[in-house]
Amino acid sequence: MTRPTIARRLLDRMFVTGEVVEVETVAARMRRIRIGGAALAGLRWTPGQHVRLLIGAGGLLGGVLRTYSVWHHDPAWEAVDLIGYDHGGDSPGASWVRNAEPGQGVAFTRPEGGFVVRPEAAYHLFAGEETASVAFGAMLRALPEGASAFGAVEADGPDGHLDLPGDLVRVCRDGAPAARSQVLVNAVRELDLPAGPGVAYLAGEARTIQAVRAHLVDERGWQRRDVRTKPFWTPGRKGMD
Ligand SMILES: Cc1cc2nc3c(=O)[nH]c(=O)nc-3n(C[C@H](O)[C@H](O)[C@H](O)COP(=O)(O)OP(=O)(O)OC[C@H]3O[C@@H](n4cnc5c(N)ncnc54)[C@H](O)[C@@H]3O)c2cc1C
Predict the structure, then answer these.
(1) Which end of the chain is more exposed for a tag (fewer CB within 10 A), N or C?
(2) In the CATH hierarchy, which fold is given to the domain comprising 6-108?
């Protein structure tokens, strides 16, 4: 019997390996990519958590990591669904999303992260663009029964929105940059929210998130601790996690 190489053993310890088993276009620039395989059995995941994909031909030595939220996972499954937004560049993540096809091998870290639902919240407020809407879908499905959810999701155009549970407001930036988006801030400003604060989950482009948080804290009087933020990307930064 041949012994696995050190690199192979390291890879198996740090990453779960599977392959793309299904790809579906779910919005204008968004693809749902199902990764399956025996190594995915028993994976633990809390909705809102993400994985980090090892992308590139160099494997452990030459590959890069890019972060994607898990859209769906069922403990009975040997699979996870990710949804990637193709932001149009030739960068590793966007290229992977654009070119994913059944049969391709994938290595990714186990689900992790603290951007998850706070069940005790009086109500839940979500705001972000396409990339954030993936985590929001998983979190909305995980809300306790009877919980109230509000929010705004921005996409470039009307066909760019994911189908999310609940009644979040959909807004379009119509070709404007998603970074520092006033469209999203204005949409949150216009939400008719209950009198007191709830818990906010803000994700997506870092500076847009800051502006939405400033609105909640300065204009609506929320405490910063009630505003959970998770910057996913920002111009000039690569591979945030
Ligand atoms: C916790 C977490 C969860 C995430 N979940 C998802 C998810 O479920 N789906 C998803 O699509 N993305 C998700 N992201 C965002 C994704 O990881 C980034 O968009 C990532 O930068 C894409 O990698 P890349 O190789 O294409 O670009 P990078 O090499 O990282 O960056 C290259 C350039 O592209 C720009 N860029 C990156 N993303 C965007 C964008 N969305 N729009 C415009 N310009 C961009 C960067 O600012 C940079 O200038 C998540 C990020 C985090 C931290």
Answers:
(1) N
(2) Elongation Factor Tu (Ef-tu); domain 3 (2.40.30)
